[in-house]
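hey m, so remember when u said the tokens were messed up on ur end? i reran from scratch. heres the input so u can diff it against urs
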Amino acid sequence: MNDRPVSVYRRPVPDDLPLTGPGGDPASVRARLADAEPRTLLMVLTHLTRDVSHLDRFAAVCDPANAESGAEREADEIRDLLTDVLTTSAPRETGPLPSDLFRRMASAYVHEPVDEEFVPLLLDQCGFAKLDGAPAAADRGPGGDGFHVVVVGAGLSGICAGIKLGEAGYSYRIYDRNKDVGGTWLTNVYPGVGVDTPSHFYSYSFEVNPDWPEFYSRGAYVLDYLRQCADGYGVREHIVFETEVVSCAYDDASRRWAVTSRGPDGTEEVEWADAVITAIGVFQGAVRPDIPGLGDFAGTVAHTAEWDPSLDLSGKRVAIVGTGASAMQVGPAIVDDVAGLAVFQRTPSWVMPRRKDDLTVPEGARWAMRHVPYYGEWFRFLTYWFASDGNFVRVVVDPDWHMPDVSVSKESEAMRQWLLAYAREELADRPDLFEKAIPNYPPFGKRILRDSNWYRMLKRDHVDLITDPITRVTADAVVTADGRETAADVLILATGYQVLPMLGQIEVTGRGGTPLADVWGHDNPRAHLGTTVPGFPNLFVLAGPNSAPNHGAGVNILAESQIHYIIGCLDLLREREARALEPRQDVHDAYNEQVDKALEGRVWSHPSVRSYYRNSTGRVVVSCPWRLVDYWTMLRSPDPAEYTLD
């Protein structure tokens, strides 16, 4: 049972008001609010006073039409009023917002309707429920009765699993092959690595971090956040590091799992568990391209997934193979140091516009996150809305759309035109680059990427974008199909990560010794709700088949939602005094039929798209066909009728 403090990042509440002490005087508070986000301050003002007239009076600050000209007079009035609320003993409302008021505020905030169906998710995932005194959706009382769980992986999902298992009273142990927590944020250390999800959204709902220094934080900051959560909740003491789980075998007689792990000295040990949760993520190691002569290259070959921080690129001729997410981060990060940079592109990516050049969170905004009640929670909602489910309409296929080769609907085409306009603006003086850098598939067909000065990098005099296919590598050059040889001292492989087979690094056998590899094959995984598999009792897969929110950000919501559901399954076992739970085959099959049918109407199935979302037959195996709010709702609690309990 975890008896550590319930919060790592204490969040401000109305009881902390009025602000006092150094910096709490009205003049200092007003000065700090000058750097805070006006729309968010309006929500805070309304939340604390419950005066809905503010929403109409200051509606201009939430209107995108004012993005350029601003609504500075209204913003200043909001800051003046809020300063008074924060620094005086004026009456303030506490406790949960009524649902209708929350909806009205949320709709005003994002300047579009927020339907009732979103309210439960927003209250939970933006942190309001726990902050306002009501138990968060994933909280449960102590229990477990000696039931022991093994978790594989100590990244974002594995740490969250440990926290929630501890809160629910379950015994657990986490195995991780690395030396520390963090998963991908520990192992990926290439230059420029960071989130392309807004930092204030990329975190746990129960630990809204007020201290992000950047709106899109570098990997080191994310790793620090995960370390603090693991330490603050006592998860670290449950982790066995530098130990890899090599097999999980279900024993029919005892209805338990034999989990075999291999330590750093090669010694293997077996631990028995009542349930197993895999939290190893979607990406399972580097993909190295099969390029003739690659082994003959005399210089340094570095994959972004296996980066050596001591690698010095100063004055080197560097070639990057790939133009996906890691390439788009590492290229701009090294361009100032290298003598020459050749970028070899097979397929271009759609690039989201930069909001502004300086992505540092202003000091006043950070102060508001730390000291102003509800500011962090409302700002988290803003980032969720525009980085996630707000994008879903753009991935839904309109079967009657008149230009299906380049977009899939009116909304998809509007997105494409917005992205094209940004590319034209960035590459206005380089039409040759514009022609090379624009994809021929609809937006969101593949992972859409955030611009980290990619277009500006491509325009540099010592940068060359090469689109002819690579035919071979020599000792000191990359040769393309047109016969051109590009000299290089360092070859950076930004060629992605292994996705399939899912759980391929672990030998998993279920009832009767059936291998999961036989059930899923090499690249055709399926699961009920992306989490449970018939024939594999008490095996739970995080980020499993068809659960990824590829219409936008949300891996953190995905992890929390699935873990909430898993603990619900464990609680169901206790309630029914059962030992084993697995989905019925007919339920599993019916669910996956729904998944396949829904995916036919999503952009990821577009005939022009080839991506890691799809398997060798073209079936989309990674993406979830529904909005986060839909999937979150599906995972609120397990339906006993869908399961066989032994």
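this time it looks ok to me. Residues 1-5, 133-142 have pLDDT under 50 and may be disordered. if urs says something different then somethings off w ur setup not the seq
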